[in-house]
Amino acid sequence: MREEDLNQILEIGVQLSSERNLTRLMERILECVMTLTHCDAGTLYLLHEDKLHFKIMRNNTLNTLAGGDGREPLPPVPLEHGNVCAMALLEGRTVNIENVKECRDYDFSGPARYDAMTGYNTQSMLVVPLHNREGLKIGVLQLINALDRKGRICPFASDLTLAVESVASQAAITLQNASYIKEIRELFHSFVRVMSTAIDERTPYNASHTRHMATYCSRFLDYLNSLAANEGKEPPFTAEQKSEILMSIWLHDIGKLVTPLEVMDKAARLHPEQYASLLHRMETIRLHARISCLSGQTTEAEQKEIEEQTCKALELIDTMNTAEFVTDEYLYALESLKDRYYTDEQGVRRPWLEPEEAAMLSIRKGTLSDAERLTMEEHVTITQKLLSQIQFSSEFSHVPAWAGAHHEYLDGSGYPRHLTADEIPTPVRIITILDIFDALTADDRPYKKAKTPEEAGRILTIMAEKEGKLDPELTRLFLASGCWKEDVEEGNRL
């Protein structure tokens, strides 16, 4: 073995240990081993469900490089006796063949068909099994047609076999590590999706919110990258940055796991038990009026007037209870109702409307009282608290901060930290726009009617250009992107 080969082996070790992307790692392994053995072609197989699957295939003579994109260039090889690659892995030994056309020990019908299709000439072959540190089978390296210094096909040098096995062993461990990293990442992403689904499934309202946001975000970031590409500029968002923003979206509402359902699902201003109590009270008032009439204490006309007044009171209450916005006219009518009293069966004078009921009905916008709104807003603080307990990798290091800031506004009027424009990075500005847009257009919210995208766009524009809450340029680009439309390509995966 030449000194340059030894140096190359050391260099291969350095290269393999520094590569983290599984596809590039597989390409690098095949490239390095082919260079070490001075061969013309090679294939890397990985074992899956008792079959060897083609992952990377390279042929210098035919100028081809296949695989690495998830598609396999050739059918998988069953892990059965007869095929040289399968045999090498089953028996755990390297197979060195000088000329496949003269070898009768294995089935070479596959290479023969390949040669017939491409005009290639498969001659010498070196097959090296890949095992992980526990000795479990991982795959096979198949090298074809070693070349001498003049470029002629020759047998693979026997003194390089040990070197190739050494590289293969290190490659197998590196592949295993990369596979572990990929599996851990997928496990984490699956956990995130499960948690997000759990949040949405807690309530029939808000069920698709996070998924919509992730879809819109992926499309919008792609749109921004395409605009930059059309202008000959670098894309503003790398694949890693896009993944980090999407992760922040999937986790942005995790704090709602502990938000009381009676607050999160509050479809009307009055709680169900309050409304039931009020209905019972109005019926009681009508019954007392009827009893008074029958006993001669009041006239039939007075009884009828009480019944009409309770019906009007319930009409007002029903309207205010579910109105998107309570007007001054409604509040004035409610004031007169607050002054009405009746006497119960114990002779106690009681109001038609309890003070707490009146306070709830007087909520101008939405269904939540100030105390309930504070409880709802606490989900952001809880989100930050929960995410701070997760040891995020460096690629997701911003997720806790970004996910916990999606209710902050550029003018400092947001919550929970009242951040200002200088403190709110671009990813958070984007997430905030998406969150508001989907909340406005959602048709599953019990306390409001869904806005059309056009109506939501006008509201976003006002918040950006007049109120200074949102980023004007990002808002304009978001509305121009149309990323919420169904005919836009999907892209919401983590």
- How many individual β-strands? 10
Q: How large is the radius of gyration? A: 35 Å
Give the CA-based shape.
elongated
Main structural class: alpha+beta
Mean of the pLDDT scores?
Answer: 87
What is the first-to-last residue Cα distance? 47 Å
Which spans of ≥5 residues are poorly predicted at pLDDT below 50? 490-494
Oligomeric organization of the protein chains: single chain
By DSSP (H or I, 4+ residues per run), the number of helices equals 17
Order of helices and strands: HHEEEEHEHEEEHHHHHHHEEHHHHHH
How large is the share of residues in beta strands? 5-15%
Largest beta-sheet details: 8 strands, antiparallel
Helix percentage range: 40-55%
Brief overview:
This protein has 494 residues and is α+β, with helices and mostly antiparallel strands. It has 17 helices and 10 strands.
Which short descriptors sum up this protein?
494 residues, 52% helix, 17 helices, disordered C terminus, alpha+beta, 10 strands, eight-stranded antiparallel sheet, two-stranded antiparallel sheet
Explained architecture:
With 494 residues, the protein is α+β, with helices and mostly antiparallel strands. The chain has helices at 3-18, 22-37, 84-91, 109-118, 161-201, 209-230, 239-251, 261-264, 272-294, 300-322, 328-338, 355-361, 370-387, 399-403, 426-441, 453-466, 472-481; strands spanning 39-48, 51-59, 64-67, 77-78, 95-97, 125-131, 137-147, 153-154, 341-343, 349-351. The chain has 17 helices and 10 strands. The strands form 2 sheets. Strands 1, 2, 3, 4, 5, 6, 7 and 8 form an 8-stranded antiparallel sheet that branches. The chain has a two-stranded antiparallel sheet with strand order 9-10. A hairpin with a 4-residue loop joins strand 2 and strand 3 (64-67). The chain is elongated. The model is unreliable at 490-494 (pLDDT under 50).
